[in-house]
């Protein structure tokens, strides 16, 4: 499992983003929990495993504009 939570301290609060590279089942669980808490996720397609599955699912379910 390989994922990071990057914390950037700003003038207003503490913005957080989840960066997903590779990963496994726990990475997907973590993504779901954090997205429910309104924390955005950046998924790196092509990095392998869970990241690739999530990127594939997203690209095949979101309407193209």
Distance between the termini: 33 Å
Number of domains: 1
State the secondary-structure class. alpha+beta
Would you tell me the overall average pLDDT?
Answer: 80
Number of helices: 2
Please outline the major beta sheet.
Answer: 3 strands, mixed
Strand content: 15-25%
Percent of residues in helices: 25-40%
Q: What is the 3D shape?
A: globular
Give the helices and strands as they follow along the chain: EEHEH
Pick out the low-confidence regions. Answer: none
Total strand count, please? 3
User: Spatial order of the strands in the main sheet?
Assistant: 1-2-3
Query: What Rg do the Cα atoms give?
Result: 13 Å
Written account of the structure:
It is built from 2 helices and 3 strands; from the N terminus they run ββαβα. The protein has helices at residues 25-36, 49-61; strands at residues 3-7, 16-20, 41-43. It has one domain (3-61). It is globular, with a radius of gyration of 13 Å. Strand 2 (16-20), helix 1 (25-36) and strand 3 (41-43) form a beta-alpha-beta unit. With 65 residues, it is of the alpha+beta class. The model has no long low-confidence stretch (mean pLDDT 80). The longest helix has 13 residues, at 49-61. It has a 3-stranded mixed beta sheet with strand order 1-2-3, covered by helices on one side. 38% of the residues lie in helices and 20% in strands.
